[in-house]
Specification:
- The protein starts with a helix and ends in a 6-residue tail after the last helix.
- It is built from five helices and four strands; from the N terminus they run αβαβαββαα.
- Strands 2-1-3-4 form a four-stranded mixed β-sheet, sandwiched between helices.
- The chain has one domain: Glutaredoxin (3-Layer(aba) Sandwich), CATH 3.40.30.
- The protein has 103 residues and is an alpha+beta fold.
Length: 103
């Protein structure tokens, strides 16, 4: 879990995904549409991807991907990110506070 937390803190927005996951693509697109440039880790393309996926499940990711970190904090998966987006400007405010976007 330490490795996942360290990677999650390396950039204002970090998304753990799998190349075959349509929700991962959707969440990445949503965040990019705000003007953010997330760091994306495709777990199915990493040699230690299974271990990282297990760590994300331990953090509460159900399913494990997409898993989103904003401002060094684990936000959650697609349900949590979409909920933030639908509740006014909550997602945008998080992105601004994390210095992922400026406007």
């Amino acid at each position: 879990m330490e490795r996942v937390m360290k990677l999650g803190a390396e950039s204002p927005v970090v998304i753990f995904t799998k190349s075959s996951c349509c929700m991962s693509h959707t969440i990445e697109t949503l965040i990019r549409n705000f003007g953010a440039n997330p760091t994306v880790y495709e777990l199915d393309e990493l040699s230690n991807g299974i271990e990282m996926e297990n760590a994300l499940v331990e953090l509460g990711g159900k399913p494990s991907v997409p898993a989103v970190f904003i401002g060094k904090e684990f936000v959650g998966g697609s349900n949590e990110v979409m909920s933030l987006n639908l509740r006014g400007n909550k997602l945008k405010q998080l992105l601004i506070r994390a210095n992922a976007i400026w406007v």
